[in-house]
Specification:
Number of helices: 18
Strand order of the largest sheet: 4-1-5
Number of domains: 2
CATH superfamily of the largest domain: SecY subunit domain
Length: about 450
Amino acid sequence: MISRQGMAFTNKFKILIRDKQLRKNILFVLGLLIVFRIAAHVPVPGINTEALANFFSSNQLLGLLNVFSGGGLENFSVVALGVGPFITASIIFQLLTMIVPKLEELSKEGEYGQRKINQYTRILTVPMALVQAYGLIALLRGGGFGGHAGGAAGLLGELSLVDIVTTMIVLTGGTIFLMWIGELISERKVGNGISLIIFAGIVSRIPTSLQQIFLTVNRADIINLILFIGIIIVTVAAIVVITEGQRNIPISYAKRVRGAKMYGGVDTHLPLRVNQAGVIPIIFAIAIVLFPPLIAQFFLRANSAFLQNAAQFVINAFNNQFFYGTIYFLLVVAFTYFYTAVIFHPQQVAENLQKQGGFIPGIRPGTATAEYIGKVSNRIMLAGATFLGLVAILPLLMQPLFGSQALIVGGTSVLIVVAVVIEIVGQVDAQLEMRSYDGV
């Protein structure tokens, strides 16, 4: 006999097959992702793409940047910056919304306010892309984070001022193009466009990664391969559990009589997610971890011997795997708490509950409720923050275990893929539910 879950899945699949609009939306999104992948293979002229790929594969930090570029960075393609500048601009405006009163008021004006903030974010993306484009050019011309001028030799030839400006404009245009594609995808409501672009870049690298694994693993390494597959399965399962995990705080609503009708008197719950910040803390941490060695790179040729030595010390420190991993882990944990504090406000939740006549059984309304919600949030956040930190440094933990670059799980990549898949399934499922109620 077919279970209820099986029957529900069969009904939803039938709706998906019959619904012409939903099919068109999915095919449209797939078409845009194909366009993105084509653009990711159109390199900027004058680049040694083979040397560039080796350069990025040998550097953990630049590998992370490549993930958030959607895979276009390792080819130095026209979309090499990916959606990174847009993500940075979005984060900046999220923080400014909490600081600037006018932006805070604008954010509370519903759809109109959100449209205005989105427009400001798009405008800020342009200068952010120009700055990041120049930084990328300077990084590749300077030899990367290795501290030696010849580290990236042959990647970028002699560039004139016109060449540099032209490359900056091309890279900025590529980011704007991806931002536009992302918004078109989001309008179809089968996933977040920006997340799907990063997702497509990560998934496109799977065949190459599998090829490397089969070429490098021999019979003696079969045990390591089985262990590697086991770690992937456990990692994916843990990410799903943490992403979907939540603590339900019981909420009761007092009975109220208005005229001849009675309102309230129901029991519900307030869900607090274990990981409310998503992958944003990792993005924050990457930006901070990259900043010191990037700035130090510009001081390697300073006239002062002290500045040269200090710059070399900073670069060597961040090239140390233990130091880099420790700083990276602590930053991810710290930013998880910071970003959650920015987007989640226990005081506002307590005030809204009090206005609606709701209360937590055994807890007094008002300040006591806010303190209780904050305490519960911080307690469960510890698990989410620690997990995010471990996921971020997973490649560093696996490297001494296997001793092979091929047998390394990119924890951040897996986290993004799993989160995007969960989001897509949720949005498509919501549309199928709506159509099933409409009798489609």
